[in-house]
Amino acid sequence: MKKNVVLSLLSSQGVLIALAMLILFGWLRYDNFLGLFNISTVLRYNSMFALVALGMCFVIMTGGIDLSVGAAAALGSVVAAILSPYGDPHNGTGMLIGALGGIAAGLCVGLLNALIIVRLKILPFIATLATMLAARGAALALANDQSLSVSYDSGFTDLGQGDVTILGLAIPIPAAISAVLYIAGSIILNYTSTGRNVLSIGGNEDASRLMGLPVNRVKFLAYIACGGLSGLAGVVLASQFGAGQPIEGVGWELFAIASVVVGGTLLTGGVGSVGATLAGVMLLGLIFNVLNFENGLGYIALSAYWQSVIRGFFLLAVVILQSQLAGRAERAEAS
Amino acid sequence: MSEAQLQSPIVGARRIETTALFARYATLIALVALIIFNVAHPHNFLTWQTLSVNLTQVATIVIVGVGMTLVIATGGIDLSVGSLMAISGAICARIILGKVVNLGEIHFAVAVGMIAGVGIAGAFGWFNGWMITRFKIQPIIATLVLFIAGRGLAQVLTNGDLQPLKIPEFQWIGLGRIGALPGGFPGVPVQVIIMVALVAAAAYALRRSLFGRQILAIGGNERAARLAGVPVAQVKRWVYCISGLCAGVAGLVVIAINSSSDANLVGLDMELDAIAAVAVGGTLLSGGRATVTGTLLGALIIQLVRYTLLANGIPDDYAKIVKAGLIVAAVWLQGQGRS
């Protein structure tokens, strides 16, 4: 009995425990690991992935998948860069115009995904594979195959590089935006009928349809939201690095899927958590950070290439653990 | 009841049949249409040179696509093929260059390098299958592990450096030609022969062999297959192993063509190209129905569309968008044919 409690705690809070242990390890081992500069850098950089993973989380909970997020982000970054010279730096419209343009580009990709998947009834995997190619092509064509510098006069770059002061703490703007959206996502998932429908559809689409739930509308919303969030991630990318980058975002979709899975969301849909997804993003992001600190100590010299190896095996460990726990739960239910 | 009403169901039935027929041969029709279009436009299409360029460019996609078709036939997917190509290329290059052990005689070193590269890629493929069957992990997640870690391993092995590899004895598999005639016929590229041999072997196995029937049975209904006594886990492990082996061969061809092994670039995006070829070729993505020759046709269509657009002055960026439309249209049409 006691063992079962430990196991269920591990399976539901596993990612949080792993994250806490990694942070504890870093805090004990390295100076400045929990320094303001490091925290702010990690949050600023990983907020792009957090935004993409939030959308991916909702899509996966409906039982689908979205491979076009990286390309949608690239398209968003290019559109934002094109629109960045417009607007006034003094009243914030400089940020707003670029951001709205990038988000709109992402929404278009999401809408296309939704139309192909819901109306043409094509598997999400193959539909979003196609839109991934199309969005990448559109981004490259718009940017003439090169990165597009953003304007530094309109205040657009503040969006990615600036801070907001909340309770005396300087928080990077992209991290603040992500935090707000994650809270909103969590509320939508847990306290609105749309959120409950997302889980219901992922659990059993046919049954949900027979119960009269608005299956198509919810799926539409999930893919469109995922596209819009990817576009926003592209906006952050452009403003943080000062350029719209049509070839960026390669492999983001798989990083986002990995974060969602590490967070305990089932890829078959029906079960998921927004907060655990955020913890998954932070966990995979911090692995890179810890690697940098470890190299800084000078005992070892692991190249940056090791980070993908470590991330891969981390993912492996988590999914094997999850499958073992799921197997135990099934046996416990059966007996 | 009027005559028109009596007849209407029959007319309707005939129309559905025509759609089904069209959907069934859509890939073939599209390919023929593309070829006719290209012949009609004066870009020296019907020269051995053009044909040869198109075939060599498509060969690696088809080689990987053969393994991918078998994997998808079981209802799975393999995202790790591109990374396995990089691993195979990195290992083979290091052995041939004598960076692991000095093997002396070059032919011996080339043989050991090729076997080791392909063999290790196959072993990683087996590992994919093992994870999927032993731990019941979904294929997309299980192969995602090696998609992420595999390229990292290849980069770690080579420290991310480009390894120049100018060894004619090895590069034969990417640059050599067989059957040159004195009349000016330059011969068939070696990788095209590898491609055709693999397609023929897999098509035969899928149709005629016990293994092939077991693959399709698993893809059609895994539970029923298990109850009917099909060794599901064993078949699946072999299928992922074959996919790894195919990726390993494709990795060797790519480094032979490039005269170098670059772990950062070999096989990049290959999983997407291979899946697209399989989908356009008419293999059911949920498993149970597969065609290897269809995958060959699918890859040829995608390649020919790209060639046609480029030959007519349309930039590659737009070719990507057209390719996307093509994939959606092909899969949609196949869905129409079934329902």
General description of the model:
- The complex is a heterodimer of chains A (335) and B (339).
- By secondary structure, chain A is mainly α.
- Helices cover 74% and strands 4% of the residues of chain A.
- Chain A contains 13 helices and four strands.
- Chain A has a two-stranded antiparallel ribbon with strand order 1-4. Chain A has a two-stranded antiparallel sheet with strand order 2-3.
- In chain A, β2 (163-166) and β3 form a beta hairpin.
- In chain A, α3 packs parallel to α5 (124-142).
- The mean pLDDT of chain A is 87.
- By secondary structure, chain B is mainly alpha-helical.
- Chain B has a domain at 58-267.
- Chain B is built from 14 helices and four strands.
- Chain B has helices at 3-24, 26-40, 48-73, 81-96, 106-134, 139-158, 168-175, 190-208, 210-220, 222-227, 232-258, 270-280, 292-311, 316-338; strands at residues 163-164, 177-178, 188-189, 260-261.
- In chain B, strands 1-4 form a two-stranded antiparallel sheet.
- Residues 1-12 of chain B have low confidence and may be disordered.
- Chains A and B meet through α5, α11 and α13 of A and α6, α12 and α14 of B.
Produce a short descriptive summary.
The complex is a heterodimer of chains A (335) and B (339). Chain A is mostly helical.
**Intertermini distance of chain B:** 29 Å
Largest interface: A-B, 46 and 47 residues
Counting DSSP E segments of at least 2 residues, the number of strands of chain B comes to 4
Structural class call of chain A reads mainly alpha
Order of helices and strands of chain A: HHHHHEHEEHHHHEHHH
The helix fraction of chain B, in percent, is over 70%
Instruction: Please state the second-level CATH architecture of chain A.
Output: Orthogonal Bundle
The global form of chain B is globular
The CATH top-level class label of chain A: Mainly Alpha
Helix proportion range of chain A: over 70%
How far the N terminus sits from the C terminus of chain A, by CA atoms, comes to 14 Å
**Overall geometric form of chain A:** globular
Largest sheet of chain B: 2 strands, antiparallel
Report strand % of chain B. Answer: under 5%
